[in-house]
Amino acid sequence: MPPEDNCNYRFLLADDHSLIRQGMEFVIEEIGLEGDIFHASNLNKLMEIIEKESIDFAIIDAMFPDGNSLAVIPEIKKNSPKTKILVFSGLDERSQSLRYINAGADGFLSKMSEEEETKEAVTRFCKEGKYLSSVTQSALVEVYINPNAANPLQKLTSRELQIAELYAKGLGNLEIANILEVKQNTISTTKKRIFEKLDIENIVELIDLLKIS
Question: Are 134 and 36 members of one domain?
Answer without folding.
Answer: yes
